[in-house]
Design brief:
Helix content is 44%, strand content 20%. It is of the alpha/beta class. It has a single domain (11-162), classed as MoaB/Mog-like domain (Molybdenum Cofactor Biosythetic Enzyme, Chain A, 3-Layer(aba) Sandwich). It is globular, with a radius of gyration of 15 Å.
Length: 164
Amino acid sequence: MHPTHQQEVVRAAVVTLSDTRTVETDKGGQLIQQFLHQSNFHVSDYVILKDDLDVLIDTLQMYSLEPSINTIILTGGTGFTKRDVTFDAVSHVIEKEMTGFGELFRQLSFDEIGPKAMFSRAIAGSVGETAIYALPGSSNAVTLGMTKLILPTVQHFLGELKRR
């Protein structure tokens, strides 16, 4: 029987990428935290960062080495403007990409918003035993990614990352 890893404890860092959001206006970051709490998962840290590639890479590397964090969920910065660096930072840091995450996210988004879904550079992967997910910044995108893709599978992902 294949293990499901439902006993895995999720300890997440939530990162919002935005030059304009504040704690009060960060609907995406707040939604991620709400979904995590509703699933009895732990929010170990929450931060809003400016759209800066080097700062984001440093933050991802720091979180991936932090024992109290095994999951990093980002929102924002996944598009095509000059300031959108989330995909680039995550791609730089991860050791293995979960290609199906971006594919499924865009497929599910297409069902909701049509061909503009292809402009999303949602991505997921791992570094060491840390799972990393990057979602677009809209509340609809966060809700879709959290409810359909992340929450149903994150414990399994973490369990797989620990297997030898």
